[in-house]
């Protein structure tokens, strides 16, 4: 029994990748959607299971009712309206924030984003995925295998792939975002906390896919500037 719990905990932990530990607005919005749909699911499950057990108990066969012929009921307006409106209401509660957030956080390709206002002070980083590593190129030309970002400042990541479809994913900052060959995709993120967050490719891209991991370091702005100048 103990073993089963350990296995379950390991599965839930996802080995270092922590999805529900958001440190950016995008990641917070995504986590909120997960919690909301989970809460709705719990409500539905509770109703279904309570009714299931209640009816199984209430209408169980006994020596007394064994030969009863149940009354035939053709319709019940009140019940029918309830079980139609209730799911509609739940779906609406789920749909409105989902659509709003999805449109808001969806990354766009460069051509789609043309003419769209970007933060003047935002930093731009070229992110190149190829089998099987990531290269991050900064504004001063510095290249690195790690993503380094200043805290509380918008970063515009220009995602590009050299070969096949990869997926950019730093769960604590948001994502996952497919990286598609022949198309540059902009992913905007503003990290809200300093620290090191694990990122990885989330699209199976070949035999060494699992090696496509990278560290994301979120630094204070001054430390970021210093790091940029380092060799
Ligand atoms: Cu990949």
From TrEMBL:
Assigned keywords, A-Z: Copper, Electron transport, Membrane, Metal-binding, Respiratory chain, Translocase, Transmembrane, Transmembrane helix, Transport
Membrane topology: Multi-pass membrane protein
The Cytochrome oxidase subunit II transmembrane region profile domain, residue ranges: 11-109
Primary localisation category: membrane
Subcellular location: Cell membrane; Membrane
Chain ranges passing through the membrane: 33-57, 83-103
InterPro entries recorded: CcO_II, CcO_II-like_C, Copper_CuA, Cupredoxin, Cyt_c_oxidase_su2, Cyt_c_oxidase_su2_TM_dom, Cyt_c_oxidase_su2_TM_sf
Cofactor: Cu cation
Start and end residues of each Cytochrome oxidase subunit II copper A binding domain: 120-230
Pfam families named among the record's database cross-references: COX2, COX2_TM
KW Transmembrane (keyword) present: yes
Top-level EC class: translocase
Cofactor note: Binds a copper A center.
E.C. numbers: 7.1.1.9
Biological function: Subunits I and II form the functional core of the enzyme complex. Electrons originating in cytochrome c are transferred via heme a and Cu(A) to the binuclear center formed by heme a3 and Cu(B).
UniProt record similarity statement: Belongs to the cytochrome c oxidase subunit 2 family.
PANTHER family: CYTOCHROME BO(3) UBIQUINOL OXIDASE SUBUNIT 2, CYTOCHROME C OXIDASE, SUBUNIT II
Name used for this protein in its record: Cytochrome c oxidase subunit 2
Organism: Sediminibacillus dalangtanensis
């Amino acid at each position: 029994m103990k073993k089963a719990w350990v296995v379950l905990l390991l599965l839930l932990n996802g080995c270092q990748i922590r999805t529900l530990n958001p440190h950016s607005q995008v990641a917070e919005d995504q986590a909120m959607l997960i919690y909301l749909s989970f809460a709705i699911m719990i409500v539905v499950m509770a109703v279904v299971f309570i009714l299931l057990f209640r009816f199984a108990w209430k209408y169980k066969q006994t020596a007394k009712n064994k030969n009863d012929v149940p009354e035939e009921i053709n319709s019940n307006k009140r019940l029918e309206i309830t079980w139609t409106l209730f799911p509609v209401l739940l779906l609406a509660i789920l749909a409105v924030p989902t659509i709003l957030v999805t449109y808001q956080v969806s990354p766009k390709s460069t051509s789609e984003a043309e003419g769209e206002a970007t933060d003047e002070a935002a930093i731009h980083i070229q992110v190149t995925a190829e089998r099987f590593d990531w290269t991050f190129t900064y504004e001063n030309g510095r290249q690195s295998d790690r993503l380094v970002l200043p805290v509380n400042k918008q970063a515009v990541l220009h995602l590009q792939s050299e070969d096949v479809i990869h997926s950019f994913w730093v769960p604590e900052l948001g994502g996952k975002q497919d990286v598609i060959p022949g198309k540059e995709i902009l992913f905007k993120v503003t990290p809200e906390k300093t620290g090191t967050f694990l990122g990885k490719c989330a699209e199976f891209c070949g035999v060494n896919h699992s090696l496509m991991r990278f560290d994301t370091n979120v630094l204070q702005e001054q430390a970021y500037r210093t790091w940029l100048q380092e060799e």
